[in-house]
Amino acid sequence: MATSTPQPPPLCPKVIVEGTRLTGKTDLAFALNEHPRLVGDRRYRYHSPLISGEWSGFTNQAWGVSMLDYGPAEEPAVLEAYRTWVRMFELQRYYSWIVDRFHLSTQVTQSRMGRGRPDFDWLEERLRPLGFAVVLCTRAEDSFAAAREERLRISANPAQYDDLTVFLREQEELRAAAARSALPVLELEVTGRSVSDLAEEVADFLDSSALLRMTDDEGPPRERVR
User: Fold this and answer.
1) Which end of the chain, N or C, is surrounded by fewer C-beta atoms within 10 Å?
2) For helices 25-32 and 195-208, what crossing angle results, to 10°?
3) Diameter over CA atoms, the chain
4) How far is CA 61 from CA 76, 181, 215, in A?
């Protein structure tokens, strides 16, 4: 009787893509969500989760508050959303999850709104054993102006890019938040690089950190790569 070849554990990387605007983080998130080294060689397209902390479904208004810029009235719902997401990650621990902005952006945004930095130690304690890593997209300060010109060609709200110092400050605040994180962090310089090149570097990082497949130990060691 022929015996079947044992299959390796499934690819199930879990990546939180962070970064201020104009760093191409969302384009990278989409690329990672379809990258063969992260999700396998797909012969056809099927549902693959790509979630975002910028979703604005907490109020009945267009472009309302999100998990990043919520106010006191929405705080209970936002924290419940975080608890719901992490529980889903735990239940579906052997699936790939790509997240476009999450708790680090929430901490930075809430702090800049004068509301203090939310404590997400409990969240990272649950994300860490699942193999989550942070990819922080950054760019050289002198490259933001050119990136803005590219964005203005497609933006429906160009006024939000008038003051580039906002993004420079946020980039430094995200660096500080990433440095405090207990999760593995890759700081990814995006200036002058293609999305495919960036995705390959993320895949290399996950591979070298043993984060492409799930293990049932206490999770990967803390690591920061620059």
Assistant:
1) N
2) 60
3) 70
4) 18, 33, 42
